[in-house]
Design brief:
The complex is a heterodimer of chains A (484) and B (369). Chain A has a domain of 201 residues. Helix content of chain A is 52%, strand content 13%. Chain A contains 21 helices and ten strands. Chain A has a five-stranded mixed β-sheet with strand order 6-7-8-9-10. In chain A, strands 1-3-2 form a three-stranded mixed β-sheet. Chain A has a two-stranded antiparallel sheet with strand order 4-5. In chain A, strand 9 and strand 10 form a beta hairpin. Helices cover 31% and strands 22% of the residues of chain B. Chain B contains nine helices and 13 strands. Chain B starts with a helix and ends with a helix. The chains are: A alpha+beta (484), B alpha/beta (369). At the A-B interface, helix 2, helix 3, helix 6, helix 12 and helix 13 of A face helix 1, strand 2, strand 4, strand 5 and helix 3 of B. Strand 4 of chain A pairs antiparallel with strand 5 of chain B.
């Protein structure tokens, strides 16, 4: 349902401020929804139509129960698209709608300008609808259970793509700022050449001997693509895998910029509301809503809060010249606090940051000791003796390290394809790049069995368990495990 | 309006119940949402299916929090999984609120999962009963239904925002636009006569802990059923070597100690049914809780015969919950299992500890049997 005229007025007002602050969004089309429509769309990842699959029903079950029991509420939904589509909850107060619109325009600006999004498909709405039609057709032809069953196994590998190589972002970053800010880089340290060179001949020999060498082999990060190109699949299976891969690439940048994107949107809704749009009578409702969005959730990071505070901190630092060699080397806390060179570069800097960073580089570059102290971040862990979670310490380096670990590769283990013709028998060899934390082995075995359903020949994965390199294998009949 | 998601939701629920796609059943986990009753944290069941993926083994490694406190200060939440940095990247855009949930609301939540099994339309009141519940708030209405708290809250908000409010001399005067009224919602539901007869073993072999578990279990069943079914009759029987009928209060608070003759309770139960609840007019649900330690095999045999001959033919379902026995054999549940194997009328459940209470309730009242 399109906006009634009073909300159209609100939209026009918000657009005025958006332009005044030099935000550069896609045009936004707002629609009003009832709670069940909004929650349906939310369950479909923001789209009015997705292919049929039970997991969307599961998400709906969880979201709607949370809403019914008053535990959580979704105010708005916005998708990365040109034009941008945004859905508003009909029952929101006017002041909520105003806030949400400001928030949405900032998201739209972020989608349009952040480097990671440059290669995403901005016309995916139609694609999603096509995918839906396709899956329904296939289900009619081959039966729901067979098609949905195949989707289930594909979901095991849906995240095994190469999220840091999503296109021409390097050129995009280089276009203006890169030369001035050499610390900003989008190339993830793990990023590898996309196409494996010819495989060394006797790979099994290498695995048996010494395993450092395995790291030096060419690797394919995009497991899904490799499987599509090399597995013995039926045409309809290829269609489904390709569809899932396309959607994964579309959604990946959003997950990789969650903190920045929500921080950016919160920064702007707060600025627009408090400095421009808010009427006196709306202050209390606005304050309550805003406080709710930024509330600290015990034991978790609130991405809205972290992102917003970090953008504000960056703006303040660049306004006052609190950066560079001289500032970094200043050891006096008082002096650092009072530091002010009146540089006035803050606004410019945050626009640049929103363009060329993602969550990992954002946290890595801008989360400072002072910030961590001011925001009172701590690491916690489970104390077996007292049977509860307890604060461990406030060492900012540990906080940062833990945050970055959770964000790198979206907090998931990095899995490569090493060989599609392992032992010369067309078997699939995967490798887990072990960076200090083991895989959940039981689940990895189930995952391996799922990969086997796609690959249809024995599948292997090299990993490490308690310091011991292992080769896990699923032959199709049984699981094997051996030390290497 | 029919939602597209209904098809997916339906399919998800079918999988959870194990009706379709049984290969996924092993990935079903018992997720839960946390609610609160008074100071107690309660959970709302939230089943989920997790597709296997390559994930980190990171149980209880903690995470990152924000706020005051020295090393060693407990983090203000209580949950099995330490979700911290690991999830920072993909938290959905929602706010988590803490809310108070009343007993009645809690029972309604359970209602999504539970039902009185095999209930049939019986009795004279086989009509749809209309109920009005004053659960909404409107801007207009009769003065008799004015919602004072909401009205004054609105007035306070208005006065603060317009600058009329003086905190040194607070005076809140609602005007017309502030007024809020309670409004009724109409619901229809079929009315079925049903009686629940609770029987509890209070003999000496039942320790305090066992009695506690039995009380909690029957308390929740009772609370839930009362919230769901109008005109529900409940009767309470306690027994050791002899059985007697008591009121609700006594049932939950009594402490006795003697030997155990389970048959005594069953006989009394049967007397009550015969005297007051003709089968043609009533759905009958006897619940019995005990530690399974009967006086003699002879009495157990009598119980079984009596169930077969008298109670089961009259009951919709007969539920037996057995708590862990510290002294006794816990034989009774095995005997029941032996004699009523495959019976659809007899449900038994072992309640070994407090954690098992929910499972037991689900066994008795879970949907989809």
């Amino acid at each position: 349902m399109p906006l009634p005229s009073n909300l159209e007025d609100v939209q026009r007002e918000v657009i005025k401020y958006v332009e005044e602050f030099n935000l550069d969004p896609f045009p936004v089309i707002f629609e009003l929804c009832d709670f069940d429509q909004l929650y349906e769309i939310a369950s479909y990842g923001g789209f009015p139509t997705r292919y049929p699959h039970w997991r969307f029903g599961m998400i709906y079950d969880h979201l709607s129960k949370g809403y019914k029991y008053g535990l959580q509420k979704i105010y708005e939904l916005v998708i990365n698209h040109d034009p941008c589509y945004a859905y508003l909850l009909k029952s929101n107060d006017i002041v909520d709608q105003k806030l949400v619109m400001a928030h949405v325009y900032a998201h739209s600006d972020f989608f349009k300008n952040n480097a990671l999004f440059q290669s995403t498909n901005r016309k995916i709405l139609e694609k999603m609808a096509n995918h839906s039609t396709k899956v329904r057709e296939l289900s009619d032809r081959f039966g729901i259970d067979r098609v949905e069953g195949f989707i289930d196994v594909c979901l095991t590998i849906e995240n095994l793509i190469d999220p840091y190589v999503t296109g021409n972002y390097e050129a995009y970053c280089n276009s203006e700022e890169k030369s001035r800010h050499p610390e900003a880089t989008f190339r993830h340290p793990e990023a590898q050449p996309r196409h494996p060179e010819a495989q060394p001949k006797d790979l099994s020999q290498i695995i048996r001997t010494k395993n450092e060498t395995i790291e030096k082999l060419p690797k394919e990060r995009d497991v899904v693509r490799f499987v599509i190109d090399n597995a013995e699949l039926e045409d309809w299976e290829i269609e489904i895998l390709s569809m899932i891969r396309e959607e994964s690439y579309y959604f990946a940048p959003q997950t990789m910029t969650k903190i920045m994107n929500e921080g950016w949107a919160s920064y702007w809704h707060s600025k627009i509301m408090t400095e421009r749009a808010l009427k006196n009578k709306e202050v209390i409702d606005y304050a309550e809503h805003h406080a709710g969005t930024l509330a600290i959730i015990p034991g978790q990071i609130n991405p809205y809060k972290l992102g917003l505070e970090l953008f504000r901190d960056i703006e303040e630092r660049w306004d006052r010249g609190k950066f560079g060699k001289e500032f970094d080397e200043c050891g006096s806390y008082d002096e650092r606090q009072k530091w002010n060179l009146r540089r006035g570069l803050g606004r410019e800097k945050i626009f640049e940051v929103r363009k060329i960073y993602h969550d990992v580089s954002f946290i890595d570059t801008f989360l400072t000791e002072d910030f961590c102290f001011k925001q009172k971040y701590f690491t916690y862990s489970y104390n077996r003796r007292s049977g509860r979670y307890e604060v461990i310490d406030r060492d900012w380096k540990k906080v940062k390290e833990k945050m970055l670990f959770g964000l790198t590769n979206l907090g998931r283990p990095i899995i490569y394809v090493i060989d599609g013709n392992f032992e010369g028998k067309k078997e699939l060899l995967l490798s887990h790049a072990h960076i200090g934390v083991d895989l959940k082995i039981d689940e990895a075995k189930d995952a391996l069995a799922a990969v086997h359903k796609i690959w249809k020949k024995p599948v292997h994965i090299v990993t490490e368990v308690s310091g011991q390199k292992k080769l896990l294998t699923f032959t199709g009949e049984e699981h094997r495990e051996r030390n290497i | 309006m029919v939602l597209k998601i209904d098809r997916d939701l339906n399919r998800f629920q079918e999988i959870i119940k194990g009706r379709i796609k049984r290969n996924l059943k092993k990935y079903v986990s018992k997720g839960e949402m946390i609610g609160k009753v008074g100071n107690d944290v309660v959970t709302i069941p939230l089943p989920q299916i997790e597709i296997p993926q390559f994930r980190y083994a990171m149980q209880q490694t903690g995470g990152i929090g924000q706020g005051d406190g020295e090393a060693g200060t407990p983090v203000g939440f209580d949950s099995e999984d330490g979700s911290g940095a690991g999830e920072a990247g993909n938290l959905p855009g929602q706010h988590i609120l803490e809310v108070d949930v009343s007993l009645e609301e809690l029972a309604t939540m359970l209602g999504d999962e539970l039902e009185l099994p095999k209930i049939l339309p019986k009795g004279s009141s086989r009509i749809l009963a209309e109920r009005e519940k004053y659960s909404s708030v409107y801007h207009a209405g009769p003065e008799s239904l004015i919602h004072f708290k909401r009205t004054f809250k609105e007035a306070l908000k208005r006065q603060i925002s317009s600058g009329e409010y003086d905190e040194n001399d607070p005076m809140i005067i609602p005007i017309k636009q502030d007024k809020r009224y309670r409004a009724a919602k109409r619901t229809e539901r079929p009315q079925n006569n049903a009686v629940i007869i609770y029987m509890m073993d209070v003999s000496g072999s039942m320790g305090d802990e066992q009695k506690e578990i039995v009380r909690i279990t029957s308390f929740w069943i009772d609370t839930w059923l009362r919230s769901q079914y109008d005109g529900l009759d409940t009767r309470y029987i306690i027994h050791d070597a002899a059985a007697k009928e008591v009121d609700r209060e006594t049932f939950y608070h009594t402490r006795e100690s003697g030997g155990t003759l389970i048959s005594s309770a069953y006989r009394l139960c049967n007397q009550i049914i015969d005297a007051e609840y003709p089968v043609c007019d009533w759905n009958i649900y006897p619940f019995h809780f005990s530690d399974g330690d009967n006086w003699s095999g002879e009495d157990t045999k009598q119980c079984v015969d009596f169930l077969k001959a008298e109670i089961l033919p009259k009951s919709n379902i007969f539920c037996y919950g057995q708590v862990e026995s510290r002294y006794g054999s816990g034989q009774f549940i095995k005997d029941l299992g032996e004699h009523f194997q495959g019976s659809e009328v007899v449900m038994t459940s072992k309640i070994d500890n407090k954690d098992a209470i929910y499972t037991a309730i689900k066994t008795f009242l879970g949907k989809g049997k």
